[in-house]
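Priority: medium. Attachment 1 of 2:
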């Protein structure tokens, strides 16, 4: 891999593009060799997708095709972790398409079609597109909304309720990770994967374009949450984006595990955090998809993507002014169905007043989550809001009753 450090971004892109293009050609030649060694499989390609899709798509293919599939996935240095392949018996080939970072979805589909045609000419192998029509890869029968059916989310989350499979670490990673856990957690306390997402700053293109942030906010506002976890004897494993510990949290340092503590590579550490924790806390993030593999619970705090959800999770959103449960249902469905439309999202945040949860509210929601885990407390379900379709139905996400109280919504 070639690395060049340049301050001028325009110059950097100009220089790096041909280098990335060469890396793509080398990667394609490696793909041809890989396919020659893996014959008589069902082949798929997906060039568009974030880190979460490197979990959800293989998870979906495992459910439908067991061991008989191969996935060609579009890899970008800035978005993906090749080590995830170890969780799926190395059935994923990451083709380097970093050169195509500027392409939108439609043009990446055209690139997919070009590669499918080229591979067929060379190897006479048919490649199926994950984004195309497939008789097995379908949405749940109760989903009828055309916008939702265009999204891959409609194809994989509902599977969670059709299987009990728990994924295991390969022996080499299991041995390495177990040794670290014994070192940093000798008392065998429960481990929390605390996911940090700091990408959405006011310099972030998506935030500027839509007004919607998916970041975690100021780490200082989670001091009470972290202190509560420490007092409950949880070991806190920080993952995701890099951040600087504020002085207010240094006093809890002996209860923390960080990348620097383990000496793992960043890619290995991400898997360590996702697969070796007992539950996760974080914003909407690809890293939360590990709970599909472990079936461990997760808590989503201060989510700005209204109507989103994950299986076996408790979710809270940013506070929003609504008049009734019926209005909230409409927001949940409309927002997610139009999630891919920047203009809709921009107008939504322009016309609706939202507010971040404060530190006391975050703590109350955490306590609710712990009570659900420890005491099997009954939570609010999508059906309680008369939601019978979409991602909330597919995931059967738990909606925080504390959050509903904060926005003055009562559910019968």
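Attachment 2 of 2:
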């Amino acid at each position: 891999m070639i690395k060049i450090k340049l301050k001028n971004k325009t110059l950097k892109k100009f220089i790096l593009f041909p280098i990335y293009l060469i890396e793509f050609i080398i990667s394609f030649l490696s793909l041809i060799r890989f396919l020659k060694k893996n014959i008589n499989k069902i082949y798929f390609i997906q060039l568009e997708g974030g880190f979460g899709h490197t979990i959800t798509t293989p998870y979906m293919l495992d459910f439908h095709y067991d061991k008989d599939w191969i996935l060609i996935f579009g890899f970008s240095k800035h978005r993906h972790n090749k080590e995830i392949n170890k969780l799926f018996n190395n059935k994923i080939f990451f083709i380097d398409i970093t050169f195509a970072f500027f392409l939108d979805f439609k043009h990446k589909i055209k690139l997919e079609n070009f590669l499918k045609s080229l591979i067929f000419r060379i190897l006479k192998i048919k490649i199926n597109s994950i984004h195309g029509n497939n008789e097995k890869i379908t949405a749940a029968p109760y989903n009828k909304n055309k916008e939702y059916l265009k999204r891959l989310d409609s194809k994989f989350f509902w599977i969670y309720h059709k299987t009990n499979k728990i994924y295991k670490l390969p022996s080499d990673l299991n041995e390495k990770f177990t040794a670290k856990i014994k070192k940093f957690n000798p008392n065998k306390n429960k481990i929390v994967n605390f996911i940090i997402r700091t990408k959405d700053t006011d310099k972030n293109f998506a935030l500027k374009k839509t007004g919607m942030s998916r970041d975690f906010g100021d780490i200082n506002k989670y001091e009470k949450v972290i202190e509560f976890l420490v007092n409950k004897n949880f070991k806190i494993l920080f993952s995701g984006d890099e951040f600087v510990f504020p002085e207010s949290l240094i006093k809890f340092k002996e209860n923390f595990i960080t990348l620097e503590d383990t000496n793992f590579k960043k890619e290995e550490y991400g898997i360590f955090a996702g697969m070796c924790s007992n539950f996760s806390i974080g914003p909407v993030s690809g890293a939360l998809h590990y709970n599909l593999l472990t079936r461990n619970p997760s808590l989503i705090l201060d989510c700005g993507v209204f109507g989103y959800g994950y299986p076996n999770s408790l979710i809270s959103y940013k506070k929003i002014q609504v008049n009734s449960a019926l209005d909230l249902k409409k927001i949940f469905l409309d927002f997610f169905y139009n999630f891919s439309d920047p203009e809709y999202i921009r107008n939504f945040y322009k016309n609706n007043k939202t507010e971040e949860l404060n530190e006391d509210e975050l703590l109350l929601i955490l306590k609710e989550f712990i009570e659900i885990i420890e005491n099997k407390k009954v939570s609010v379900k999508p059906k309680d809001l008369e939601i019978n379709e979409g991602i909330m139905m597919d995931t059967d996400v738990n909606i925080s009753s504390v959050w509903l109280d904060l926005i003055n919504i009562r559910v019968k």
